[in-house]
Amino acid sequence: MGKRWAAALLVLALAGAASAPPLARAVGKAAKSAENTAKAPAEEMAAEGAESLLAAEEMAEPPGSLADMRAVEAAGVPAESRDAACWALYRGLLLPGEDGSFDGEKPVNRAEAVGALYRLSGIPISVGPCPDPEVPGEYRDAVAWADRVGVSGGVSKDSFAPFSPVTRSQLAVMLHRFAAWRGENVESRTAVSWAGERVPAYAEEALNWVTDRGLYAGMTDHGLYPDLPVSRLQLACVLARLQRDRDPLAGGLVLPEGAAAGLSRQKHKALEQAVAAAALRHGAVGVQVAVIEEGAVTDAYHYGWAVKESVPMTDAHKLRTASLSKVAVGLSAALLREEGAVDYDADIGEYWGVQTWKPVTVRALLSHTSTLLNSENIAWDDQGVKAQLAGESGYGGGTPGDLRYWSYNNHAFGVLGQTLELAAGRYLDDVLEERVLGPLGADGSFAAGELEEPELVTPLYRQSSLGRSAGSVRSVRQWSAPGATGRQFAGGYTSSAVDLAKLTALLAGDGCFEGVRLMDAESVELMESCEDRALPGGTYQALPMRLRSGVYGRERLYYHTGSAYGVYNLVSYDPDTGDGVVVLTTGADGGKDQYDIYAVCGEISRAVYEAVA
Question: Alpha-carbon distance 173 to 190, whole Å?
Fold first, then answer.
């Protein structure tokens, strides 16, 4: 296949030689008009481009194209994006990874993005000193050029942040300025509206223009996600679209277009009725539902009241998720393991600075096999936990980590959250914000008073009565220091169903979200790992979700339930298809179905899974 593609590239190049100038000559005019850009270097680059094309005519295939094609194949680049990957490699805009693969899901950093535009400019010459000494040597000229001609500045006065992932908003601004620099029309005909998403003010015009020109086609089918990093494969597609009229090779590429609406949206009305019917049947005051299809959050539903008979429920309201919080803690553990901050199999006494009476590990805490006593009477503060870990009275019988001593343990998850904060020296809210919540544009917190919009927190209803006021939920603020308390980790995470679905979609997508890798696939595999022995009831304990076979029409589902103060919640996903459902309810009756899952959540989840199958 590599030779066939190389031959196709050569045919396109030869055909374009007669009708269009090579890339360096195509951008020469814009390069000459740039402020303080010397005439001679641009002409030299055009001449070099022409010489390269003549040399290619004499070869059986363009240099490097076969190796590049093999690199793309090795990475498993989807067929609809393979043209763009090959083109980006052939033009030298992106280089193969260290192992020779294309690494299409890997986020592009700011230096790499500017470097690609610099090479597209056709004037790879030194234009002055680089404004940031931390920029790697191979990108210093590119960053200096971008700063000089106004294509890109830094994130602050003295920092370009070369290693930070370039976000969709930042890339849009770079592209907009680059197009203006080379003399293109950068006016947008329409203002694009992205419901529920906050577009940075500095990027509004650029994002409108990028969307209007179709440069982000296929990237924004399920939302703009302005703070989400751009992957290498996405950048290749964007640049190929940008060059369609300037590069004969780019003009002939087959590129991915927008996908059709998900099945949930196509069946939205019917599913909306199913949600309402289940809510009515179980007496729910309010319900939120979010749908995941093939690893993407595709649709959402709401029913009833956020504040009973006063404020209607919306997709944006924030509910206490109860024990679904444990999934957020488990995700935090996996992310911190990636960073080398925590070892799943080390005795947690190392992080607490105590000698544990029994060796307890993060893995045992995640799997409810720690044998720690589970009691509301045990202190949640750090001194109380140290005393529990060090003394015989803090444990039950059995060996930590042995599934025979499994016991669902809220208190142990509080200890786990504290352990992770002590190991990282950071609040788990900050870990999640930096790694996933920020990029996904999600607002969730273990301390509801720290939410971006705490006014959206709902009261919790225990059927018709108030279970907990919104003010009480919002009263939880960040504690005095990381690890100071574990009270919120077993059930205090507060979020909308949509924002919790974003985290679930990341797991359903094996660490990728909307084509960008935010966590290692190995980390998700670890979270999904479980022993062969089933728990009573036929489920298998993962870290920390459970696995069940043959449920709601799916061969298998990972899931977690949660209940407290009258909320009955469920998060689940199908690891084979990437589909998933998040259901948050308040005021329902709490009855359970044959799978020991809250019936109101199970009925809604079944309807969704059947609809998107």
Answer: 17
Question: Could you tell me which residues are beta bridge partners of residue 570?
Answer: 561, 583
Residue 71: beta bridge partners?
Answer: none
Strand runs labelled E in 257-390? 286-293, 296-307, 311-312, 319-320
* DSSP letter assigned to residue 595: T
Phi first, then psi: what are they for 348, rounded to 5°? -65, -10
Q: How many residues are there in the chain?
A: 613
Q: What is the 3-state secondary structure (H, E, C) of 436-504?
A: HHHHHCCCCECCHHHCCCHHHECCEEECCEEEECHHHHHCCCCCCCCCCECCCCCCCCEECHHHHHHHH
Contact predicate 403/367, CB 8 Å = yes
Question: pLDDT averaged over the chain?
Answer: 87
CA dist., res. 569 & res. 571, Å (int): 7
| DSSP-derived 3-state class of residue 549 | strand
Residue 484 β-bridge partners: none
What sign results for the dihedral spanned by CA atoms 536, 539, 544, 545?
Answer: negative
What is the SS3 assignment for 560-579?
EEEEECCEEEEEEECCCCCC
Q: Which two tokens stand for residue 336?
A: 């911190």
Question: What is the enclosing helix (H) or strand (E) of 237?
Answer: helix 232-242
Assessment of whether the complete model's pTM goes beyond 0.85: yes
Give me the pLDDT at residue 157, please.
66
Output the six-digit token pair for 556: 């298998």
Give the CA dihedral 11, 12, 17, 18, nearest 10 degrees.
90
* Residue 512 three-state SS: strand
What is the tens place of the pLDDT at every residue in 513-527? 999 999 999 999 999
SS3 301: strand
Alpha helices in 20-78 (DSSP H): 23-26, 28-33, 39-57, 65-74
- Which segment of 80-89, 504-513, 587-596 scores lowest on mean pLDDT? 80-89
Q: Is 215 helix (H, G, I), strand (E, B) or coil?
A: coil
Query: Distances in Å between the alpha carbon of 136 and those of 139, 140, 165, 514?
Result: 6, 6, 15, 29
Q: SS3 of 229, please?
A: strand
Nearest-Å Rg of the Cα atoms of the chain is 27
- The H-or-E segment that residue 325 falls in is helix 325-338
Residue 435 is given by DSSP the state I
Q: What is the pLDDT of residue 58?
A: 34
